[in-house]
Each structure stands twice: as C-alpha cells, then as structure tokens.
Amino acid sequence: MQEDTRKDFLPLVSKPGWVMTWLIRIFGGAILLVVFVALAVFPFLVSGNVPILIIFALLYYPVWAIGMYRFFHHVKKNMSVAIRKIRVDDEGIHFYKKDGSVRDVLYSQLGSSYLSDKYQVYLTTEVKTWILAVGIDGNEIKVVFDGTDIGCTHYIKNGRALRARFIEGIVRFRPDLKIDPFVFKEFSIHPGKFTFDGKRYMRHVGEAAVAIGIMLLFSLLLIFIITIL
Questions:
Q1: Which residues contact residue 142 at a Cβ distance below 8 angstroms, ignoring those fewer than 6 apart?
Q2: Model confidence over 136-192: pLDDT tens digits?
Q3: Per the count of CB atoms within 10 A, which of 32, 166, 174, 220 is most buried?
Q4: Could you give the CA distance from residue 59 to residue 36 in angstroms, rounded to a whole number?
C-alpha cells in the first residue's frame, strides 16, 4: 500500500520564470549602481572646501573600499551556493545548488522542534514574512521554496505548487506529524486536494485589505484631529 502511494506521488520540479528573473536583475542592478555611485561621491557632497574634502576622503575611501570588497565577496560566496533547482518527490524536498551540492529535507527526518510544542509542521516569521518550518533533531528548519534564504540563480514561478506538494508528501508519508492549520490558511492550500485555494486566497486578501483600510482611515482621522487642534 505504501509502495502504491509512492508511485502515485509524482515528483515536481521548480520552473524558472525568466521574465521576472531579468526584471529583478535589471532593477536590482540599477538600484545597486545608484547606491554605489552615491557612496562613491559622498565626500564631494558633504565637504565644503578642498582641505576638508582631502581629510574626509583619506578617512572615508579606505572604509568604503573595505565595505565594497566585503559586499562583493559576500555576493560571490552566496551565488556559488545559490539554488538552481528544487525538486519535491516521495522522499522529501531537494535543493540543487550551483556548486553541485544538494541539500535535502526528507520526510523521514521530520520530528519535533524545541520551538513548537504542539505542531511538528508550522509557520515562523523572517523579515515579517511567514515561512514554513519543520523540526529535525529538535531543531527548527526553515523550508523556503524560492531559494531566497541563500539566493537563487533565477526566479521560481511555481513556488506555491512546490510548497503544496511538500505538505502533501508530509500528510501522505508522515501521518504521525501534526500540521498547524494556519499553514493551509496562510498559504491558501486546500487541505484535502493540496491545490491552490482561490477562495481562501481571496478571503485572505480581503481581510488584509480591510485591515489596511482601517489603518489608513485611523491615520487620516488622527491627522484631521491634529490639524484642527
């Protein structure tokens, strides 16, 4: 029975979105170029005369050069291990990196995490963004489906489908694990079909829109009260 279940569980591989990839590269590169130029000419903008410019430049540019070196070294290091492909199959999720190595999160490894007493599959936050988390050997492991945690060689356009398939694999092959219901709600995944739940997503968007509308209305009301006092 388990063997039949594994045969029915077809692997899913990430798909590159080249339009978004090049848009991100172009706009990201343009922003970096503007920042680079602004930092390069900063001493000329703040110095009132030549003597001050010389003194400030002697102190500023060595620090600027070290900062630029560290930044580009960091980018080069991250790109060497950037994700080039993600595959979800009956064993788990596999992250294929640019340097040829593979990082695996297998269903057989999953268990409890010290950070979650009730659920073994749950959500955690990073930079105000919900991320799927699982427990392995008591540690919390964040599972990101677009490679943004360590970088990616391209934009992955089927990240939602990869996430849903991974969760489906947990339900199929590790029914002993408890999944936080908020996972299905936040990622708009149908808990029975493991597909994108459009109604749930639109309801989620509507709730967010109402919350933002209330905040804007409160802000406008506060500004109005301040202006008439």
A1: 124, 126, 131, 132, 133, 149
A2: 998 999 998 875 555 677 888 898 899 999 999 999 999 999 999 999 988 889 888
A3: 166
A4: 18
Give the tens place of pLDDT for each residue, 54-104. 888 899 999 999 999 998 888 888 777 788 899 999 999 999 988 888 999
Residue 102 phi, psi (nearest 5): -130, 130
Q: Are 43 and 49 in contact (CB under 8 A)?
A: no
Rounded CA-CA distance 213/205 in Å is 12
pTM of the model: 0.76
**What is the token pair recorded at 8?**
């029915």
Distance spanning both ends of the chain, measured CA to CA: 74
Q: What is the DSSP string of the chain?
A: -HHHHHHHS--EE--B-HHHHHHHHHHHHHHHHHHHHHHHSHHHHH-SSHHHHHHHHHHHHHHHHHHHHHHHHHHHHHHHT-EEEEEE-SSEEEEEETTS-EEEEEGGGEE-BTTBSS-SEEEEEETTEEEEEEEETBEEEEE-SSSTTT-BSS-BTTHHHHHHHHHHHHHHH-TTS-B-HHHHHHTTB-TTT-SB-HHHHHHHHHHHHHHHHHHHHHHHHHHHHHHH-
Query: How large is the C-alpha radius of gyration of the chain?
Result: 24
Q: Where are the domains of the chain?
A: 2-16+83-196, 19-80, 204-229
